[in-house]
Amino acid sequence: MQIEATGLGKRFQRDWIFRGLTRAFRPGSATAVLGPNGAGKSTLLNTIAGQLLPTEGALAYTLSGRPVAVEDVPQHLAYAAPYLELLEELTLLELLRFHTQFKPLQAGVSLERLIDIMYLEKGRHQLVREFSSGMKQRLKLGLALYAAAPLLLLDEPTTNLDATGVAWYQEHVEATRAGRTLLLSSNVPAEYSFCDEELLVTDFQTGKR
Ligand SMILES: Nc1ncnc2c1ncn2[C@@H]1O[C@H](COP(=O)(O)OP(=O)(O)OP(=O)(O)O)[C@@H](O)[C@H]1O
């Protein structure tokens, strides 16, 4: 998905979080959205996801040369973030069946294959609520990385992952990012070192008031 941000700005009450952001995000690119805690990285991802309205400026989305209305962006989007909750009252298999009804997996990836990829075989019939935080994070990432969605947003993707989990993430983000538009919010170089572009949110904060 091609995304063109023009003069994009977001304000909460009287505080501008970012302002004057003009940038194109191309299919096949991976952009690291960087900045200190509270800089506005998640706010920017949520705005690009169409979940927050920009206060000023515009976002234009194009898929295979056709414009996509902002209200249709969610169907083309896979998003993993600490603040997006899993349905923890379901077992893993129930959750995967439910989730993939509205967010299908990539061609050739079955539910069983995804369970293997996520190393969650033993949790197949377990309530997600009982998963460790690392298991939940592998589940969130597996659902996003292997979704059939051209726009991939990852917010702090290695949250709760140990060193093995971080290596797992690096392997699978590489395996799934070709041709997609990826934006990744991070403070951890191991999460974003593969990205070909960087966007420092604080570059869009001078003179914003
Ligand atoms: N819904 C909201 N209403 C008011 N202020 C908000 C809202 N959401 C976020 N903010 C504020 O916007 C600023 C940016 O927050 P945001 O979560 O985007 O930062 P971040 O760079 O992702 O931070 P972190 O690295 O800590 O996750 C913060 O000051 C936060 O308090």
TrEMBL record:
Instruction: List the Gene Ontology MF annotations in alphabetical order.
Output: ATP binding; ATP hydrolysis activity
Tell me the domain of life.
Bacteria
Pfam families documented for this protein: ABC_tran (PF00005)
| Keyword field contains Chaperone | no
PROSITE patterns annotated for this entry?
ABC_TRANSPORTER_1, ABC_TRANSPORTER_2
The yes or no answer to whether the keyword ATP-binding is present is yes
Signal peptide start and end residues: none
Alphabetical list of InterPro entries matching this protein: AAA+_ATPase, ABC_transporter-like_ATP-bd, ABC_transporter-like_CS, ABC_Transporter_VariousFunc, P-loop_NTPase
Keywords noted in UniProt = ATP-binding, Nucleotide-binding, Transport
Give residue ranges for domain ABC transporter: 3-209
Question: Record's SMART domains?
Answer: AAA (SM00382)
Q: Write down what this protein is called.
A: ATP-binding cassette domain-containing protein
